[in-house]
Amino acid sequence: MSEKINEFYAFLDGRKEQVLSEVKNLAADNRMDESNILKAKANIYDICKAVFGVASKGTSEDMVKDAFFSKFSNITGQWESSLEKAKAHDDTHKILIEEAKFSAVSEIKEKVEELF
Questions:
Q1: Contact 64, 54 (CB under 8 A)
Q2: Alpha-carbon dihedral of residues 104, 15, 47, 43, nearest 10 degrees?
Q3: Can you give the pLDDT of all 116 residues of the chain as single tens digits?
Q4: How far from 56 is each of 5, 41, 47, CA to CA, in Å?
Q5: What is the pLDDT of residue 60?
Q6: DSSP codes of every residue in the chain
Q7: In this predicted structure, what is the pLDDT of residue 1?
Q8: How far apart are CA 72 and CA 116, in angstroms?
Q9: Distance (Å, whole) CA 19 – CA 35
Q10: What is the pLDDT at residue 50?
Q11: How far is CA 94 from CA 35, 39, 75, 90, 100, in A?
């Protein structure tokens, strides 16, 4: 595995740990709604890691960014649809969850752009 891929996986693991630490602190303060919203964000790092693993298999490092974005956009497209529906129904809780996911997606995309 290349240095860049290892760095990317370390980034994902580190961000997930930070978010889970925040989840734990919010739960300790009895802020369960916020804690649960951040749990959804933490899951994005695992999903991304799995998608990146699939995208990078049999793909040159030069092409891994395009392969990853292609596969990842299939998933994020579903989240965009869910966010639009939540906004249409004024479902504040669902909106917050979907926006938390996109916060992670944004960080991940930036890191992929930076590394690859």
A1: no
A2: -80
A3: 689 999 999 999 999 999 999 999 999 999 999 999 999 999 999 999 999 999 999 888 889 999 999 999 989 999 999 999 999 999 999 999 999 999 999 999 999 999 99
A4: 9, 23, 14
A5: 87
A6: --HHHHHHHHHHHHHHHHHHHHHHHHHHTT-HHHHHHHHHHHHHHHHHHHHHHHHHTT--HHHHHHHHHHHHHHHHHHHHHHHHHHHHTT-HHHHHHHHHHHHHHHHHHHHHHHH-
A7: 67
A8: 15
A9: 10
A10: 95
A11: 14, 13, 17, 9, 10
Taking only Cα atoms into account, the Rg of the chain, rounded to an integer number of angstroms, comes to 15
* CB 116, CB 65: distance < 8 Å: yes
How distant, in Å, are the alpha carbons of 23, 104, 116 from that of 27?
Answer: 6, 20, 36
- Measured between alpha carbons, how far is 115 from 110 in angstroms, rounded to an integer? 9
Q: Which amino acid is at 21?
A: S
C-alpha dist (Å) from residue 63 to 12, 57, 66, 112: 20, 11, 6, 12
